[in-house]
Design a protein that fits this description.
This is Succinate-semialdehyde dehydrogenase (NAD(P)(+)). One of its GO terms (biological process) is gamma-aminobutyric acid catabolic process. One of its GO terms (molecular function) is succinate-semialdehyde dehydrogenase (NAD+) activity. With 490 residues, the chain is an alpha/beta fold. The protein folds into 2 domains: 7-261 and 464-484, Aldehyde Dehydrogenase, Chain A, domain 1, CATH 3.40.605; 266-446, 3-Layer(aba) Sandwich (Aldehyde Dehydrogenase, Chain A, domain 2). It contains 16 helices and 22 strands. It has a 7-stranded mixed sheet with strand order 14-15-16-13-12-18-19, sandwiched between helices. Strands 9-8-7-10-11-21 form a 6-stranded mixed sheet, with helices on both faces. Helix 3 packs antiparallel against helix 6 (163-175), helix 5 packs parallel to helix 6 (163-175) and helix 10 (275-286) crosses helix 11.
Length: 490
């Protein structure tokens, strides 16, 4: 490591374009705030189309050089980046907690999770194999080779400000692509810190460019990338409506797309499940980041014969969770990202109670702790007509639905336009095989609440998007296949 950065050193407020930190062309800035207090942390560049175009220009100039850099040399750069991330894990974890709100232990955990993708794709950079196609005619050879798709535009969400951008940038750079990117307006500081370390690791000027933009200016900035034929791929994690917009608006230049979109994850507990394990699995999957994750269980279906027992076990565990700012070392649930998030949670809980749900624990805003806190909540008696049944709550709320038999549970779990993650608990091996095949989702957790791994493909089906991140399959989304045929060899 050539330099040790303290927290104030990692906070950068300008765009990173062509290897330089530059303000927005307009000179405008917008505030990034601490969700725990509402205090302003920094004023960052508020970019527009001019800045987006400058980033693309830089990426276009850098692409031929980075594309032709030996895979081993690209891997070396990524390994150095990985080492720098690990060397600054505590500082990056504190920065994540500061601008996103999650407890420090989770913030540091996210750093390690994001770093795992950098290490994985550093190794995969040297494993981009093609094929020799068996000869079909004498005097003619045929082969298929994989090449970098070109400039990649990466657009990332606020809930995992380091992991999501690392999961997109690392495979792009490993494949030989250059990158333009825009983090979410709520959490740009972590992304800029990550890019600072990438530059320190030796990513050349122009190969990696990042701009920030306010909620008002982001659409126009991204639109420039959608319209620019030099940008050959969009990778996006966020809501389904925005994903559909990106797909429509990029159709004019037929870009390659990876879209990891909204979810409405079911969590099924059968009567033969280990209930203690099921409760622990639900706690891990639901309350990570305060429920603000796309794979968070949104609908919990419990078989009638074990419903009351499971509800009692769960309510006791949830009631014991400590809600506090990230500065509290014992915090387990931090603030929600902003006031809009809390208002949506309140709206869902109020609607559920109006339609007959019973509050087993929580169900209220914790205004005494700060502006964006909501109590971890368990609701019994949830029904399909409630808003939380068909919309992601994206918060620490567990609605419990009752079911009678396996067929009913599968039908209810699949009754959604989304298909990102699903979970179920059972000790019947035949049921495990049967149910895992019938559930309509890209990710299936079987007696397990923690699904994500850099070695596994992450992505959904139906309106949860397409494309995969992580694993050897994730690298393919940044490559195109070229068929080469050579004749007159006989």
């Amino acid at each position: 490591m050539t330099q040790r950065y303290e927290l104030h050193d990692l906070i950068r407020t300008d765009n990173f374009i062509d290897g330089k930190w530059v303000p927005a062309a307009s000179g405008k800035r917008f505030a990034v705030t601490d969700p725990a207090t509402g205090d302003v942390i920094a004023q960052v560049a508020d970019s527009g189309p001019t800045d987006a175009r400058a980033a693309t220009d830089a990426a276009a100039r850098a692409f031929p050089v980075w594309r032709d850099t030996l895979p081993k040399d690209r891997a070396d750069v990524l390994h150095r980046w990985h080492a720098l991330i690990l060397g600054h894990a505590d500082t990056l974890g504190r920065l994540i907690s500061l601008e996103q709100g999650k407890p420090f232990a989770e913030g540091r955990g996210e750093v390690m999770y994001g770093a795992s993708y950098v290490a994985w794709f550093a190794n995969e950079a040297t494993r981009i194999y093609g094929d020799i196609i068996p000869q079909q005619q004498r005097g003619k050879s045929m082969s298929a080779v994989k090449e970098p798709v070109g400039i990649v535009a990466a657009i990332t969400p606020w809930n995992f400000p380091l992991a999501m951008i690392a999961r997109k940038i690392a495979p792009a750079l490993a494949a030989g692509c250059t990158v333009v990117g825009k983090p979410a307006e709520d959490t740009p500081l972590t992304a800029f810190a990550l890019i600072l370390l990438a530059h320190e690791a030796g990513v050349p000027a122009g190969a990696l460019n990042l701009i920030s933009a306010s909620r008002d200016n982001a659409p126009a900035s991204v639109k420039d990338w959608l319209d620019d034929s030099r940008v050959r791929k969009i990778t996006f994690t966020g809501s389904t409506p925005v994903g559909k917009y990106l797909a429509r608006e990029s159709a004019g230049t037929l870009k390659k797309l990876s879209l990891e979109l909204g979810g409405n994850a079911p969590f099924i507990v059968f009567d033969d499940a280990d209930l203690d394990a099921a409760v622990s699995g639900l706690m891990a999957s639901k309350f990570r980041n305060g429920g603000q994750t796309c794979v968070s269980p949104n609908r919990v279906y419990v078989q009638a014969s074990v419903y009351d027992q499971f509800a009692d076990l769960l309510a006791k565990r949830v009631a014991a969770l400590k809600v506090a700012p990230a500065t509290d070392p014992d915090a387990q649930i931090g603030p929600m990202i902003n006031a809009r998030a809390v208002e949506k949670i309140e709206r869902h809980v109020f609607d559920a109670i109006e339609r007959g749900a019973q509050v087993l624990t929580g169900g209220n805003r914790l205004t005494e702790r700060g502006p964006n806190y909501y109590a971890p909540t368990v609701l019994a008696g949830a029904t399909p007509d409630m808003h939380l049944s068909c919309e992601e709550t994206f918060g620490p709320v567990v609605p419990l639905f009752r079911f009678d038999d396996e067929e009913q549970a599968i039908r209810a779990a699949n009754d959604t336009p989304f298909g990102l993650a699903t979970y179920f608990y059972s000790q019947d091996l035949r049921r495990i095989d049967r149910v895992s095949r019938l559930l309509e989702a890209g990710l299936v957790g079987i007696n397990e609440g923690a699904l994500s791994s850099e070695a596994a493909p992450f992505g959904g089906v139906k309106e949860s998007g397409y494309g995969r991140e992580g694993s050897k399959y994730g690298l393919d989304d940044y490559l195109s296949i070229k068929y080469r045929c050579q004749g007159n060899l006989a």
